[in-house]
Amino acid sequence: MMGDSILNLVRNHAAQTPGAPCLSFETETLNYGDMFKRCRRVAQALAQQGVKAGDRVAILARNSPAQYELLFGCGIIGAILLPVNWRLAPREVADILADAEPSLLIVEGDFRDLLAEAEMPIETMDLHADYPAWREAASAKAPEQPITPDTPALMLYTSGTTGRPKGAVLSHRNLSYMNRMAGELWDFPADGVNLVAMPLFHIGGIGYGLSAFGRGGHTVLMQQVIPVDIVEAIRQHRVTHGFFVPTVIQMLMEVPGVAEMNMSSLKCMLYGGAPIGEAVLKRAMEMFGCGFIHCYGMTETAGTVITLVPEDHDPGGPRAHRLRSCGLPMPWAELALINPETGEAVSTGDVGEIRIRSAVNMLGYWNKPEETAKTITPDGWLCTGDAAYQDADGYVYIHDRFKDMIVSGGENIYPTEIENVLFEHSGVAQVAVIGVAHQRWGETPKAFVVAREGARLSEAELIQFTRDRLAHYKCPTSVAFVAALPVNGAGKILKKEMRNPFWLKDNA
């Protein structure tokens, strides 16, 4: 591994192969020398702006080279980059900014409306009108601050079981493992071309996107997921690797004429973030004719900690059953399957909660010591909330979730977020939200509502009520009005009972 600093991912190649292509975006390609020079200018500009070690620098924008310039630039001075999810509602953005208290916010112009509910004064800069000149006016001789492996580098906000966002703080050490992963397990060559299309406010975007930097490879960055543009970028740049959530893989297969296109450059297609249907996976393997790698991980583990390598994708062969597996733990990740009620390890074949102990585990949640203590045990095990079992060969199979979470199109959604919003409606007496099967997105939220006496509610009204307050992907796509919610003797809502008719019906 190239040291426990993400700066080494670009700095070493800027010194050794400065003319090699580093990052392509739209019509521009930066080589490693120019890329690192930009990062140093950004570092100097940040320092002149008054940004200090430990300060947060936020960016609210679609994918662009600026996210990586800022990530490495922040790294040089010991600051922390905070990419903000532009799919969120203004209230959610306000909550994140109030919690993180960034020293500077760089915003793409058409997202300024998302700042409408932010109450704290924040120094802002327009990504297109101001940022380029601000960067270029600074010297490329920024002094580097002392960086340790545990220096925070990146903060990504995740949804929480309480409905409040939590900022997962990732260190230089956490992120530097992406280079080792790319080399040892993904066989990423120095002349490889990596396509990054997933949003850079997710670990599957910005974290995965680091994989080519450390290998000296070429990263092709897409502004957003547009399937026909992704297919064209694969052809034009001779892309060798790319990571996609299953819904995007399905969309790529639906691009007209894709089956007849020349995709021979593809070496590996990585997928994760949500379950994938076996039929979809087999079809994709046949259509794209490359190796496939399943990635299991989460923001709190800085990305992948369990992987199913191409050799284990064997439809029709003796290992065909492993297509349902998420693979084996990474060499640097200890895995345990624990009964959360007893704290004891379960036997082979029995279901337990996945727990990970590794140097990739986050430092903790920003300003939330109690939430951190609930997630990371005193002896270093990170509790994922995912239920799984292992076979005799050590392969891990996801069974369910101990956390009451919905995964829709690769986005994690906690029902509590939706329920909290619906409870604000004067006509709602009780509400419970579950995930139900969806052909395109895997899962989608469904709300069960008990109306207050005399209230006249409609499905459309309640869906719009949530859309005014939450990111649209979090909002229920259907509402059922019921006389009562099923509860146990202690009054706890029995969501498993509510889910069973939908999942049993769809999986029959």
What is the arithmetic mean of pLDDT?
91
Uncertain runs:
none
- Structural class call reads alpha/beta
Task: Quickly name the level 1 CATH class of the domain at 1-172.
Answer: Alpha Beta
Q: How do the strands of the widest beta sheet line up side by side?
A: 2-1-10-9-11-12-13-14-15
Approximate strand percentage: 25-35%
Count of helical stretches: 15
Overall number of strands: 25
CATH topology of the domain at 1-172: Rossmann fold
- CATH homolog superfamily of the domain at 1-172: ANL, N-terminal domain
Largest beta sheet, briefly?
9 strands, mixed
CATH architecture label name of the domain at 1-172: 3-Layer(aba) Sandwich
Overall 3D geometry? globular
Distance between the termini: 47 Å
Radius of gyration, taken over Cα atoms and rounded to an integer in Å? 23 Å
Q: Percent of residues in helical segments?
A: 25-40%
3D architecture notes:
Helices cover 29% and strands 26% of the residues. The protein has 508 residues and is of the alpha/beta class. Among the domains are: 1-172, 3-Layer(aba) Sandwich (Rossmann fold), CATH 3.40.50.12780; 336-354 and 366-385, Luciferase, Domain 3 (Luciferase, domain 3); 413-507, ANL, C-terminal domain (GMP Synthetase, Chain A, domain 3, 2-Layer Sandwich). The N and C termini lie far apart (47 Å). The model has no long low-confidence stretch (mean pLDDT 91).
